[in-house]
Specification:
The complex is a heterodimer. Chain A is an all-alpha fold. In chain A, about 80% of the residues lie in helices and about 0% in strands. Chain B has a single domain (about 5-100, about 160-220), classed as Rossmann fold, CATH 3.40.50.300. The chains are: A mainly alpha, B alpha/beta.
Chain lengths: ~240, ~220
């Protein structure tokens, strides 16, 4: 528990270190919260807008955390000691992803607080479950993206593409034909479906299934490549770029 | 009695080294016995730090074998890693935006048991950093950083210390402290890379001279 608290602190400090990032995230969260309070016509639409606003902001935080989980270790020269520790690297990255989910709490919860101020009936067990689903979803995405980004010579160059894919596919920000069906390939699509109340019976089990399937698939595909790719980066210093 | 560590014909070539790769290590052979200190010296680019990384299992040798207590170290050297403590030395190696105490607590967590604040304070006291427990690592001088590296070596008992240039930036008191720490556990072996031959002489190290990736000489310093 002490170790997890320290990890949360490391994540918080790393995120806080970039003032432009903090200002950007604060502005985005505030603007989205204001917009949903003005645009939503009732508690239902407000909940969907809050969910989308939280996802929009937190996906950025998640990807930045996923990138820095490994890249910062090289920058600080701590990767050697991380590799030689008793905590397996894949587990450590999992703990880091969970810490990242805790750190993004303000950006995740503020849109819901805004929705609750505008429409008090938003407050309830369904909203709490939705927030829990968002935490789980974002922690899982963070973990998966960390494992994926380790495979890239320059993770920072891959992050914008990951973000674009998550926004286009996972959140249907561009309503192309069958966008909703495509979004439901990812857990984000099912979170939004649960928030909207459409397909309410299957949304939760399908969300859990997609989270588990994607996490297991990425873990199985990349856990054995993790160490060799990190060793490669240790040797030629590419990850520190 | 078999040596604690055997280096059998170790070769290492860096990947992505171009069309005509040159081996950084070329058939290094050596032994390290329990309680012994092996000092590695050599010019820039002679392969000293690469050799330490191989000993710490951070790099896999291109050819050759590393044996610990007579057993080859496999691809998942859990038992070996539990017995080894590696320090790459300052200026890097810790989180710059965490304090000295937080850094120590974090790395103790990686070793399995997260220190309490009090426990971290005790270790910092041993390396002369008791008053700097709440200072950010980024604000530390090179010597203070080196002392924090020493504190991390003390996190748990180990059979082998692998240390790269530990005297860099240390003042006279710091070097004395380092000497005491190196001599503090008679059964522990140490492999240390240093340019400071006088220091190696004072700690009674057997010397291995590396030249262009090969062992040029291995003997006691007096000889």
């Amino acid at each position: 528990m002490r170790f997890t608290l320290l990890l949360i602190r490391v994540q918080w400090i790393d995120r806080r270190a970039t003032s432009s990032f903090i200002i950007g995230i604060t502005l985005q969260t505030a603007l989205l919260t204001l917009a949903l309070a003005h645009r939503a016509t009732g508690a239902g639409p407000a909940l969907v807008l809050a969910c989308r606003a939280a996802l929009l902001t937190c996906v950025t935080i998640v990807l930045l955390s996923a990138m820095s989980s490994v890249q910062n270790e090289f920058r600080y020269g701590t990767m050697e000691n991380v590799l030689l520790g008793r905590v397996p690297l894949a587990r450590l990255l999992g703990l880091r992803a969970a810490s990242c989910a805790v750190v993004m709490s303000p950006a995740l919860c503020l849109p819901f607080a805004g929705a609750a101020v505008a429409f008090p009936s938003v407050l309830g067990p369904r909203t709490l479950l939705l927030i829990a689903m968002l935490y789980l979803c974002l922690a899982a995405i963070c973990y998966q993206c960390t494992l994926l980004l380790c495979q890239f010579a320059r993770p920072s160059a891959a992050v914008p593409w990951f973000r674009l894919a998550l926004l286009l596919v996972g959140m249907s920000v561009v309503p192309f034909p069958r966008a909703r069906q495509v979004a439901e390939l990812l857990p984000t699509g099912w979170v939004i479906a649960y928030a909207a109340g459409t397909r309410a019976v299957v949304a939760l089990p399908m969300f859990l299934a997609t989270v588990s399937l994607w996490t297991c698939a990425v873990w199985l595909a990349f856990r054995k490549r993790l160490r060799p790719s990190i060793e490669r980066s240790l040797v030629d210093g590419r990850a520190a770029l | 009695m078999s040596p604690l560590l055997e280096l059998n014909d170790l070769w290492y070539t860096y990947p992505h080294a171009g069309p005509n790769p040159v081996a950084v290590l070329r058939g290094v052979r050596a032994e390290v016995h329990e309680g012994e200190t092996l000092g590695i010296v050599g010019g820039n680019g002679s392969g000293k730090s690469t050799l330490l990384k191989i000993l710490a299992t951070l790099l896999r040798p291109t050819a050759g074998q590393l044996r610990y207590r007579g057993e080859p170290i496999g691809s998942v050297p859990t038992a070996y890693r539990a017995a080894v403590n590696y320090s790459a030395g300052a200026p890097l190696g810790f989180y710059p935006r965490l304090t000295a105490a937080e850094n120590l607590r974090f790395f103790s967590g990686l070793k399995g048991t997260t220190l309490t604040r009090h426990g971290a304070g005790g270790l910092l006291d041993r390396v002369g950093l008791a008053d700097q427990a709440d200072v950010l690592y980024a604000r530390f001088s090179l010597g203070m950083r080196q002392r924090l590296h020493l504190a991390r070596l003390l996190l748990e008992p180990s059979a082998l210390w692998i240390v790269d240039e530990p005297t860099n930036g240390l003042d006279a008191d710091g070097v004395r402290l380092l000497q005491e720490l190196l001599g503090g556990a008679p059964d522990r072996a140490t492999v240390v890379v240093s340019h400071d031959r006088e220091f190696l002489h004072r700690i009674g190290a057997r010397i291995l001279i590396l030249k262009e990736g090969q062992v040029a000489r291995c003997a006691s310093l007096s000889s």
